[in-house]
């Protein structure tokens, strides 16, 4: 089966892991600090806090923002469930706003209409690696006195109006799952230009431990002493995985270049296929193309999905609208809430997209898709 996404691991990553295993630090050591410093550079100089997954990054970002019961988070339903579930786990109410019909990105007008006096975060999602409209969303968030969060699980290395993803929103979260644009096996990160948000994020991912003596509330103990003032979790990304990440960051430019080549080639090879809509791209962004999401028209998505998989082509669907999941349905969310998102989902199909995909592999995808649609 030709996969829809796949990691790109070479000898350099293997040697980097071996070097950590030969050393003194398996976690909380120099490889973590190095990876975070290198990630900061890619993200335009923002503070970087590595964590164990993209889900952990979202949980940590919302915690750093102080999200809790009584607060509302406005976000897109066209995303993996974690964008919403991690806010809900902190006690917030998730308010879903509809997406633009062509990009599946959070619609600023819909986000604005969803604001209330309890809105604390507006969370956009860079679906497929295409940055959302952050100038418009900044205005929306500011009008509510809310923080702007960029769920950039798909878009590390992308840019919006010349600014790198990671430097645009108040908080940005990355995912380093194997199918993403770079991997640490499992892993993620929170980046922010705000030193206080970064401090809160770093403390939350380290169980909430306070080790700074000037902050101690218990002052009669010895040098071993540490305290917890607010609950956190162990979301520390170990040195072994950060070593992979550092190598992957050095390869990121090449990864993104190949993804762009594949996206351009898909457009050229599929531009004349009836019954298929190709992904939109705004003129003011440079996408990272984590996914190549086509839309199968005429109600044939299930047929084409099954036909591609039967032919050994691992297409995927991204994503079921978040509020369709039973956990949200049980909480009172109903279908029909975001019509554009639901219409997009009904047609969406992700074609194989990863740096190791060869032209021959891609020709095979195109040939099968053409045959099924004619």
TrEMBL record:
The modification N6-(pyridoxal phosphate)lysine is found at residue 180. Keywords: Pyridoxal phosphate. InterPro entries: DegT/StrS_aminotransferase, PyrdxlP-dep_Trfase, PyrdxlP-dep_Trfase_major, PyrdxlP-dep_Trfase_small. GO terms for molecular function: pyridoxal phosphate binding; transaminase activity. Pfam families: DegT_DnrJ_EryC1. The keyword Ubl conjugation does not apply. CDD domains: AHBA_syn (cd00616). SUPFAM superfamilies: PLP-dependent transferases. The keyword Lipid metabolism does not apply. One of its GO terms (biological process) is polysaccharide biosynthetic process. Its cofactor is pyridoxal 5'-phosphate. The active site is at residue 180. Coiled coil: none annotated. Belongs to the DegT/DnrJ/EryC1 family. This is UDP-4-amino-4,6-dideoxy-N-acetyl-beta-L-altrosami ne transaminase. The lineage of its organism: Bacteria, Bacillati, Actinomycetota, Actinomycetes, Micromonosporales.
């Amino acid at each position: 089966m030709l996969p829809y996404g796949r990691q790109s691991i070479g000898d350099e990553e293997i040697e980097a892991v071996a070097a950590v295993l030969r050393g003194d630090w398996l976690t909380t050591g120099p490889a973590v600090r190095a990876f975070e410093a290198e990630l900061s550079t890619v993200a335009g100089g923002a503070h970087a806090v590595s964590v164990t997954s993209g889900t952990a990054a979202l949980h940590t970002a919302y915690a750093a923002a102080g999200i809790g019961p009584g607060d509302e988070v406005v976000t897109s339903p066209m995303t993996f469930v974690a964008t919403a579930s991690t806010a809900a786990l902190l006690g917030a109410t998730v308010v879903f706003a509809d997406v633009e019909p062509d990009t599946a990105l959070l619609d600023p007008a819909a986000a604005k209409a969803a604001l209330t006096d309890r809105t604390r975060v507006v969370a956009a999602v860079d679906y497929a690696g295409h940055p959302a409209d952050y100038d418009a969303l900044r205005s929306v968030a500011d009008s509510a006195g809310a923080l702007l969060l960029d769920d950039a699980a798909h878009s590390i290395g992308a840019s919006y109006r010349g600014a790198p993803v990671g430097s645009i929103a108040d908080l940005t979260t990355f995912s380093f799952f194997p199918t993403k644009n770079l991997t640490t096996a499992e892993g993620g990160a929170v980046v922010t230009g705000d030193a206080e948000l970064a401090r809160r994020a770093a403390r939350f991912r380290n169980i909430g431990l306070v080790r700074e003596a000037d902050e101690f509330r218990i002052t009669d103990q010895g040098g071993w002493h540490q305290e917890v003032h607010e609950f956190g979790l162990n979301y520390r990304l170990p040195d072994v995985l950060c070593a992979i990440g550092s190598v992957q960051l050095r390869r990121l430019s090449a990864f993104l270049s190949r993804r762009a080549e594949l996206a351009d080639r898909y457009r050229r090879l599929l531009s004349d296929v009836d019954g298929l809509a190709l992904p939109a791209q705004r003129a003011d962004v440079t996408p990272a193309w984590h996914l190549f999401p086509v839309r199968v028209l005429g109600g044939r998505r299930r047929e084409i999905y099954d036909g591609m998989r039967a032919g050994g082509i691992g297409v995927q669907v991204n994503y079921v609208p978040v509020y369709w999941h039973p956990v949200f349905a049980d909480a009172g969310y109903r279908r029909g809430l975001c019509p554009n998102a639901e219409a997009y989902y009904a047609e969406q199909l992700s074609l194989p997209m990863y740096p190791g995909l060869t032209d021959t592999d891609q020709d095979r995808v195109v040939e099968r898709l053409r045959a099924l649609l004619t």
